[in-house]
Amino acid sequence: MSFTETNINIFRMINDLGKEYTFLNPPFIFIAEYTVYLLALATIVYWFTREYKNRMMVISAGITFIFAEIIGKLAGTFHSNYQPFAELANVNKLIEKTVGNSFPSDHTILFFSFCMTFWLFKKGYGFLWMIAAILVGISRMWVGVHYPADVAAGALISIVSAVVVYYVVPRISFIQKLLKLYEKGEGYILPSKSKSKDF
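Above: the chain sequence. Below: its structure as tokens.
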């Protein structure tokens, strides 16, 4: 069986579940479309804990996303495909999506960039973030807008980027100085908080 056939078969297996278990469609639509707002809220909360480690984590996640997006766009120039609903018949399409290159999945890149970074920094319960990212990846296939290869490529790019950034960015003195400068300025606006500790 060719890679293309495997890619389509796995997509069909996941997407067709929405036809069989229709009661699961609303939760997967929510995960596919709206968990991005929960991720944004969590990121804001982490930032305003005003803890140095949390802020360095948010900065690292943002840099990871930028790098992963750049790599993803480059990958998209070497390989491209339209969304499954635009190429296949009888797709269970549950959300509106414009037709374009769906490789790799930007949504997956965003979630794995942040969730992998959160896991690396938080350890322990941080694995819950990775479960959330995996659910988002599955949901994009469930609602009919991405192939497994789109999701897998986005996840792989983001995971590798997150690991590299985790070991490099927090140790860059320029980033540390910028954060401390920001916190100093913030201190003039917000009530004082206990002094930040170096990462």
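Residues 118 and 126 are 6 Å apart (CA to CA).
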